[in-house]
Amino acid sequence: MSPEAMGRPLLVVSCGLFSDTVVVRLSGEIDAYGLAPLREHLRRVWELPPTSFLILDLREVGFCDSMGMNELLDIMHRCEARDTRLLLGGVQGVMARVLSITGLRNAFEVFGTLDEALRRAAVRA
């Protein structure tokens, strides 16, 4: 049964480009059902020439399971291979707890808002 039929929210993914930064906005749940749309959007990102930064805007993520966390780690490794810095913006609530509980809070560059992450990218620190 599909997530829609079960009344579960899907993961909605959208992308934008700001200067030399790709921003991927996520809304919904990062789990087994959400991986397909996320991977599809990222496939297009990986086909582009590398940018200096990739920001994942997580402010509207309501759930993230172990498969979602593994995907975030895979994205981080892919970024490292492309010499792109991965920034996580909008990390509050659920995502802040998941990163803390898993011990991965310090593995990522984490910002409470998208604006903070965009400012970091603009500074090119």
Automatic annotation (TrEMBL):
State the superkingdom.
Bacteria
- According to the record, the segments passing through the membrane are none
Q: Which residues form the STAS domain?
A: 20-121
Q: Which family does it belong to?
A: Belongs to the anti-sigma-factor antagonist family.
Quote the protein name from its UniProt record.
Anti-sigma factor antagonist
What is the organism field in this record?
Nonomuraea corallina
